[in-house]
Each structure stands twice: as C-alpha cells, then as structure tokens.
Amino acid sequence: MFSRSIRVGAVSSDQIEQLHRRFKQLSGDQPTIRKENFNNVPDLDLNPIRSKIIRAFFDNRNLRKGPSGVADEINFEDFLTIMSYFRPIDITMDEEQVQLCRKEKLRFLFHMYDSDSDGRITLEEYRNVVEELLSGNPHIEKESARSIADGAMMEAASVCVGQMEPDQVYEGITFDDFLKIWQGIDIETKMHVRFLNVEAMALCH
Amino acid sequence: MEGTELAGKILSTWLTLVLGLILLPSAFGVSLGISEIYMKILVKTLEWATIRIEKGVPKESVKNSASVGIIQRDESPMEKGLSGLRGRDFELSDVFYFSKKGLEAIVEDEVTQRFSSEELVSWNLLTRTNINFQYISLRLTMVWVLGVIVRYCVLLPLRVTLAFIGISLLVMGTTLVGQLPDSSLKSWLSELVHLTCCRICVRSLSGTIHYHNKQYRPQKGGICVANHTSPIDVFILTTDGCYAMVGQVQGGLMGIIQRAIVKACPHVWFERSEMKDRHLVTKRLKEHIADRKKLPILIFPEGTCINNTSVMMFKKGSFEIGGTIHPVAIKYNPQFGDAFWNSSKYNMVSYLLRVMTSWAIVCDVWYLPPMTREEGEDAAQFANRVKSAIAVQGGLTELPWDGGLKRGKVKDAFREEQQKNYSNMIVGNGSLNSESN
C-alpha cells in the first residue's frame, strides 16, 4: 500500500488501519486533511501550543518535502510520517538507531521553535513560544513572559558558546546547539505515543 | 378471486395472532414468554457464531477490547508530566509534554468517539457492525443470510405493524380520555393508555428490559433524570411508570402525538421562543412539581444523544428547579442491536428502520435512591454528583465534556481555565528559577 519507505517503526497493520479510520474521521472522508479539520478535536483546544502542533503537521521540513514552507493539505502517508516522529524507542534497536531516532525527535521540536526556517532559534522566536505557552492567562504580563524567555536564552548561550565577550551577540540556537543542550538527558520517554498491543514488525530504516 | 380471498385470510389470521398474542397481554402487563424464547435462541446462535469466528481467525489478529482505544494515554496530571525534565530550560521541556498531549488528542480524543456507535468485540451477525471480520466459513455465512431473511421479512413487518398500532392507539386513546372531566378516573385511564401503548411500542422493537431497584421508582412531585442515548429511552422508562415529559413543541407526527397526549395528562411542552427564556422554563417546571398530584417530570440533562459508553456533562439548568431528583441509569446491551441515534448521520426514519431490523433492544434500567441538593452545593456540583452516581451504577465512564460538542466548539471559559492552571505553574516555578540563578 505504501511505496515510499516510511519510518513507521513498531506499528502493526491493525494499528495503521485504526489510524486510517481516524484520519478519515478527521478529514471528513476526504483524501487529505487541511488545517481547519483539526478544529474539530476538542481535546486539542485546551493545548496552549495547538497552533504550533497543527503547523508542525503541515511543515515541509517535517514532511521531508523541502527546506521551508507550509503545505496546504496532507494525505495519509504524510500523516503517518508525522506520527513516526513519536514512535517509542524499541529495546531491540541498536545504539546507532537509538541515536538516530532521538535526533529525529529533537529535530521535530526544533522545527516547532524555528518558525522562519532559517536554522536558528532567535530570541524573538523563543519569546513567541513562551508567550504562546503562557497565553490565555491575563494575569501574566508580557514583561514576565519576555524575562523568562531572555533568561532561558542566556542560559542556552552559556551552554553553547561558553563565556561571551561583552559585545558578542548570540545569534540564536542552531540545531547543533539544541542537541548539545539535550545531551545526556533522556527525552525518549517523554516524547512518544505508545500504541496498545504493540507488535514490533517494521523497523526504522 | 382466489388470490384476494387467500390474501384476506392471511391478513385476518395475522391480525388475530397479533391481537391475541401481543396486544392483549400488553394491556394487562402480562408476558406470554414468546420473546423470552426468541431471546434464548438468539443468544445461543450468537454464542455459536462467536466461537466459529474465534476458531476461524488466525491468532495474531484477535483484537483486544475495541473500545479501550488505540493508544496508551498519559493520564498523569499536568504537574507530574511537566516536572520530569525541569531543571534545564523549562519551556523547552514543557513543549515536549504539550506536543505529546497534542498528538495524543489528534490520534484519539475522548469526545468525538462518543458520538459514533460503540464497536463490538465480536460480530453479532449484522452487516452494519461488520467492520473487521472477514469470511470465516460457509456455515456462518448461511446463518447470516438466514438472519437477514428473518430480520427483514419476518420481524420487520411485524414490528412496523405493532408500532403503527401502538402509536395510533396512543393518539386515539389519549384523545378519548381527554374528553373526560378532570378526576381520578381520568388519571387512572390515562395511565392505563400510556402504559399499554408504550408496552406495545417496546414490543415492536423486541425490547427486553430489566428493571432493578424498583423500590426507588420516581414518585409524584419529583424530577427523574437519566442518561440519553436515543428517543427510545422515553418508551423504555414509560413502560414501568408514567412520567410528565418536557420538551419543545414539534411539527409533523411528533406534534400530533404531543398534542394528543397532553390532553390526557399534563405534560410540559414549550414553544421554541419560550425555550430561550430560562426563567420561564424554570418557573413552569417549579409549578409542575409543586402540585403533588402531577406525575414526575422526565428530563435528560445531557441535552443530546450520547453513544451509551459514557455520561457527559449534565446541564445545570435541570438541577436549579429544586425538588427531589430521582436518578435513573439506562444501559443498552450493544450485542443485540445498537440503540444510539447518531442524528448527524441518520434521520429519524432511517434510524427507526435500523432499530427495527436489529435483533432486539436489550437494556438494563437501574433506579437510584433519590437525591437532593445539599447545603453549600451549587447546581453545577449537584449535577456532577448525580452524574457520577448514574455513571457508576450503569458502568459508564464519566466525562466532564459538554454533549453540545457534537455540534459546537469548546467554550472559551473551559479552555482559559486549563491555560490559567498551566501558567500558574510556570510563574510559580519561574520565579523560583530566576531566584536560584
């Protein structure tokens, strides 16, 4: 059914069928999903970063269709591609595969922050994410959100660049810096969606 | 000539049988045991079919309970989910948590699945529930074909006849009773008419109902609340006792029935314009229950049909009227027929057709002890308390979501509460973080 090799990981054909039914439910029996279709998911409405999550589904970098830009609609194959970023790390994988899977997950998150696709998370983009996370609470002023973002960027700078000269400007967090921040910290257990009755059939390619 | 004579003879024998075996016993509330025998045969056949399917299907594809869901959701509260990676940049880690939650919601959300019919674990020989089951054996297919013939050619005409008779008797009977002056005789007669006709209607669906805890049956001057799955709920409850119904005046056949039955006993019907005025509605209902001689009101606080796997938010309006609330839990057995009315997918006529070509409607009704609003409890908390009681008794899951989500979007107030919750956590920890820096 799928000609391209999709890194679906430990998902059985049963589960793909269930996902396909969910896809049809979301798309209203159309072959593709558009951004508006995600408005029908009530649970998603409560999520502060829902616009970023929805955008991530249409991001060309995540869909492996280009270095930037946003697609208008996605088909089921694309849906599975995005799902594959959240597959759990299988114990049967070897070290290299584990590192690869981890890198893919972190790259997905990096793309969520880096909205202009220039390969760096600038202070503005970081502030944007923090503001979204804190949106909806009228008691938190914009200033607090900014100071949280500024503090975090400074910490990131000190990790990645070390001691900075007084007039040195920190351009933004690159993907390598991003990886450096998360080195040694176990993110795998936090960023996966585990299917029930998992039968390990396909592996990461 | 011979043809018409024969047809006439068949029709008359048919009607006599129906009259003798079904209508008369219904009038007296007596059961001849025919439906029990039918149910026994049905249960045996379905058990046999399940065994055949399990033998025929390869081991790997035997599914777990279909209604549990396809992903393992992280049910831990927000604090636990977020705290794991703190210490570093907390926003980065929080994005992990929220993106995972977001994806879980996209793959499977708790609400939308309640607005479609429940999936069965094993096939019940109805085509409409045949989602994943492949061809197993010739014998099974033959039984299925036999089932189709029985359902469409034998059961369906019988049921349609009964339903027709039931509804017409209801309309005629209540109109006749309505001519009498108000007296205890009139109430007794109207109860008799209501009970008989509802029993006929329930038999027209091959309904088998088990009532539990009859001692808690709703009394006069009280309010009866129940979970809502389909319009059939009304008939199911009325077979065991008379209620005053509340609703909007409608047109067509429903309107005729409404106008007829309100002549016999005081139901509460509202015009569409009146429904918008909540105070007016509450006032009229209060007046109704204040009169101890009037029948208990029947209300479905969910406001819409849910698929009988869960109980959704009870609208607090019904609980502001006061009086004693008598909760009732209704649980249908999906193995014999799906009673849920998916109003966005089927209109009333196709829904009735589906129900009448199912095997049977089997359900359990539990009467719960009466509840009243306690001191210091507001209507919403009281509504939740009643909802939990019904959910626990009926074995349904409880959801805080509004049934109105079937057609509308999440209310802003609900969303803002969640976001406030999260932001409080951040600011609390954020200030600590900056202090330690």
What are the defining features of this structure?
heterodimer; A: 205 residues; mainly alpha; two-stranded antiparallel sheet; disordered C terminus; B: 437 residues; alpha/beta; protein kinase inhibitor activity (chain A); lipoprotein (chain A)
Structure description:
The complex is a heterodimer of chains A (205) and B (437). Chain A is 45% helix and 5% strand. Chain A is mostly helical and 205 residues long. The model of chain A is unreliable at 1-9 and 197-205 (pLDDT under 50). Chain A has helices at residues 13-27, 42-45, 50-58, 76-84, 95-113, 123-133, 142-160, 175-181, and strands spanning 33-34, 73-74, 120-121, 173-174, 194-195. Chain A is built from 8 helices and 5 strands. In chain A, helix 3 crosses helix 5 (95-113) and helix 6 (123-133) crosses helix 7. Chain B has 437 residues and is of the alpha/beta class. Chain B has helices at residues 2-28, 34-56, 78-83, 90-107, 138-178, 184-204, 232-238, 252-264, 272-276, 278-290, 348-356, 379-394, 412-436, and strands at 71-72, 207-212, 223-226, 244-248, 268-270, 297-299, 310-311, 325-333, 361-367, 397-398. In chain B, the strands form 2 sheets. A 7-stranded mixed beta sheet of chain B has the order 2-9-8-3-6-4-5, with helices on both faces. In chain B, strands 7-10 form a two-stranded parallel sheet. The longest helix of chain B has 41 residues, at 138-178. At the A-B interface, helix 1, helix 2, helix 3, helix 5 and helix 6 of A face strand 1, helix 4 and helix 13 of B. Chain B: It is found in: Endoplasmic reticulum membrane. Chain B: Residues 222-333 form the Phospholipid/glycerol acyltransferase domain.
